[in-house]
C-alpha cells in the first residue's frame, strides 16, 4: 500500500513534497516533470485538497529510488529555479509525515471511552435507550446550530479568499504573457 511505501521512503530519506503545482496535474505528469528535469525516476502521488487548502496550488508526494537522487534534486534546486510550463516555480521540501496519535477517534472532538477500563454499573445495564440525535430543547442542539452557522460562515470566507486569489493569479499571469 501507498502509506507503507511512503513511511519506508520517509524513514530512508527518499521522500519529497512538491508544492506550487498546477492542481490539474496528475501523478503521471509529476513523474514526467521529475524525469525530464532531473533525469531521475520516481513514484508520485498528488495530494487531495482539503477544506482549507488553496484550489489554485497543488501538492504531490514523491518517492525516489535512492537517497542520492533526493540529494541531487535538492542540490540542483538550491542552485537553480525550475519553472513549470504554466510559469510557476516548483517548490520542493523534504517530506514530513504527520505523526499519528496513540488513539485516534472517528470524529474531531469526539472522545471514546474504553469499556474494558470502566466497570459496567447496574444502572447502565438497565438503562433505556435514548435518541442518538440532539433534541431542540437541549444545550447540545443549540451548540450544534451555532457550530453549523460558524461552519457556514467559514466556508464562505474560504471561498471568497480563493476567488480573490484566483483573480490575482489571472492578473499576474496576464502580466507575464504581455512582456
UniProtKB/TrEMBL annotation:
Q: Which InterPro entries match?
A: Nucleotide-bd_a/b_plait_sf, RBD_domain_sf, RRM_dom
Which Pfam family, any one, appears in the UniProt record? RRM_1
Report the coiled-coil segments. none
Q: Which organism is it from?
A: Erythranthe guttata
User: Highest taxon of the source?
Assistant: Eukaryota
PANTHER family xref list: PROTEIN ANTI-SILENCING 1
Question: Which protein are we looking at?
Answer: RRM domain-containing protein
Q: Is RNA-binding found in the keyword set?
A: yes
Q: Does the keyword RNA-binding apply?
A: yes
Molecular function (GO) terms for this protein are:
RNA binding
Q: Which UniProt keywords apply?
A: RNA-binding
Please list the residue ranges annotated as the RRM domain.
Answer: 14-97
Amino acid at each position: 500500500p501507498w502509506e507503507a511505501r511512503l513511511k519506508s521512503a520517509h524513514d530512508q530519506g527518499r521522500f519529497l513534497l512538491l508544492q506550487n503545482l498546477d492542481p490539474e496535474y496528475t501523478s503521471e505528469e509529476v513523474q514526467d516533470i521529475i524525469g525530464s528535469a532531473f533525469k531521475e525516476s520516481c513514484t508520485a502521488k498528488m495530494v487531495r485538497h482539503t477544506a482549507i487548502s488553496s484550489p489554485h496550488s497543488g501538492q504531490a508526494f514523491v518517492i525516489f529510488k535512492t537517497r542520492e537522487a533526493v540529494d541531487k534534486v535538492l542540490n540542483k534546486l538550491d542552485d537553480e529555479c525550475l519553472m513549470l510550463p504554466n510559469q510557476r516555480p516548483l517548490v520542493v521540501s523534504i517530506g514530513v509525515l504527520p505523526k499519528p496519535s496513540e488513539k485516534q477517534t472517528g470524529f474531531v472532538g469526539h472522545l471514546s471511552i474504553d469499556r474494558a477500563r470502566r466497570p459496567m454499573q447496574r444502572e447502565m445495564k438497565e438503562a433505556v435507550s435514548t435518541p442518538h440525535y440532539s433534541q431542540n430543547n437541549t444545550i447540545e442542539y443549540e451548540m450544534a446550530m451555532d457550530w453549523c452557522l460558524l461552519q457556514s460562515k467559514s466556508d464562505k470566507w474560504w471561498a471568497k479568499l480563493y476567488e480573490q486569489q484566483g483573480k490575482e493569479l489571472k492578473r499576474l499571469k496576464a502580466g507575464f504573457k504581455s512582456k
